[in-house]
Write a structure and sequence with these properties.
By secondary structure, the protein is mostly helical. It is 52% helix and 0% strand.
Length: 92
Protein backbone atom coordinates (compact mmCIF):
# COMPACT_ATOMS: atom_id res chain seq x y z
CA UNK A 1 0.00 0.00 0.00
CA UNK A 2 1.50 3.32 -1.05
CA UNK A 3 2.01 6.18 1.36
CA UNK A 4 -0.15 9.23 0.87
CA UNK A 5 0.09 12.64 2.45
CA UNK A 6 -2.62 13.86 4.79
CA UNK A 7 -4.29 16.97 3.35
CA UNK A 8 -4.00 19.29 6.38
CA UNK A 9 -5.07 22.34 4.36
CA UNK A 10 -8.30 20.57 3.42
CA UNK A 11 -8.89 19.70 7.06
CA UNK A 12 -8.29 23.30 8.11
CA UNK A 13 -10.93 24.44 5.62
CA UNK A 14 -13.53 22.16 7.22
CA UNK A 15 -12.97 23.01 10.89
CA UNK A 16 -12.34 25.85 13.28
CA UNK A 17 -10.02 23.86 15.52
CA UNK A 18 -7.46 21.51 13.96
CA UNK A 19 -6.77 19.73 17.24
CA UNK A 20 -10.42 18.85 17.78
CA UNK A 21 -10.68 17.61 14.20
CA UNK A 22 -7.62 15.38 14.62
CA UNK A 23 -9.00 14.03 17.90
CA UNK A 24 -12.35 13.30 16.24
CA UNK A 25 -10.70 11.54 13.28
CA UNK A 26 -8.54 9.57 15.70
CA UNK A 27 -11.57 8.33 17.61
CA UNK A 28 -13.26 7.37 14.33
CA UNK A 29 -10.13 5.43 13.26
CA UNK A 30 -10.17 3.59 16.60
CA UNK A 31 -13.83 2.74 16.06
CA UNK A 32 -13.09 1.37 12.58
CA UNK A 33 -10.20 -0.73 13.89
CA UNK A 34 -12.33 -2.02 16.77
CA UNK A 35 -15.05 -3.10 14.34
CA UNK A 36 -12.47 -4.96 12.24
CA UNK A 37 -11.09 -6.76 15.29
CA UNK A 38 -14.55 -7.74 16.50
CA UNK A 39 -15.56 -9.00 13.04
CA UNK A 40 -12.35 -11.02 12.71
CA UNK A 41 -12.77 -12.48 16.20
CA UNK A 42 -16.36 -13.51 15.50
CA UNK A 43 -15.34 -15.06 12.19
CA UNK A 44 -12.52 -17.00 13.87
CA UNK A 45 -14.84 -18.18 16.65
CA UNK A 46 -17.32 -19.52 14.09
CA UNK A 47 -14.60 -21.43 12.23
CA UNK A 48 -12.75 -22.67 15.31
CA UNK A 49 -12.44 -26.37 15.85
CA UNK A 50 -11.93 -27.53 19.38
CA UNK A 51 -9.20 -30.11 19.68
CA UNK A 52 -5.94 -30.67 21.49
CA UNK A 53 -4.57 -27.32 22.60
CA UNK A 54 -0.95 -28.55 22.80
CA UNK A 55 -0.70 -28.90 19.04
CA UNK A 56 0.08 -25.51 17.58
CA UNK A 57 0.59 -25.29 13.86
CA UNK A 58 1.65 -22.22 11.96
CA UNK A 59 -1.06 -21.26 9.55
CA UNK A 60 -0.10 -20.17 6.03
CA UNK A 61 -1.39 -16.89 4.66
CA UNK A 62 -4.81 -17.59 3.16
CA UNK A 63 -5.20 -17.31 -0.60
CA UNK A 64 -8.13 -14.93 -0.19
CA UNK A 65 -6.04 -12.46 1.88
CA UNK A 66 -6.95 -8.85 1.15
CA UNK A 67 -4.95 -5.91 2.47
CA UNK A 68 -7.40 -3.38 3.86
CA UNK A 69 -7.05 0.37 3.80
CA UNK A 70 -5.65 1.87 7.00
CA UNK A 71 -8.28 3.02 9.51
CA UNK A 72 -6.69 6.48 9.76
CA UNK A 73 -6.92 6.95 5.99
CA UNK A 74 -10.57 5.93 6.05
CA UNK A 75 -11.32 8.30 8.95
CA UNK A 76 -9.64 11.25 7.16
CA UNK A 77 -11.58 10.52 3.96
CA UNK A 78 -14.84 10.26 5.87
CA UNK A 79 -14.16 13.58 7.59
CA UNK A 80 -13.28 15.37 4.36
CA UNK A 81 -16.31 14.04 2.48
CA UNK A 82 -18.69 14.79 5.34
CA UNK A 83 -19.55 11.14 6.03
CA UNK A 84 -18.30 11.56 9.60
CA UNK A 85 -19.09 14.52 11.81
CA UNK A 86 -18.77 15.05 15.51
CA UNK A 87 -20.57 17.19 18.01
CA UNK A 88 -18.46 19.21 20.38
CA UNK A 89 -19.75 18.87 23.94
CA UNK A 90 -21.04 22.14 25.33
CA UNK A 91 -19.26 23.15 28.51
CA UNK A 92 -20.66 25.72 30.87
Amino acid sequence: MALRTIPFRDIEDKTENMYEAVAAMSSQAKRILYERVVDATLKDAENEEFGVFDEVEEEPIPEDYVELEKPTSIAVKQFLTGEYTWNKPITE
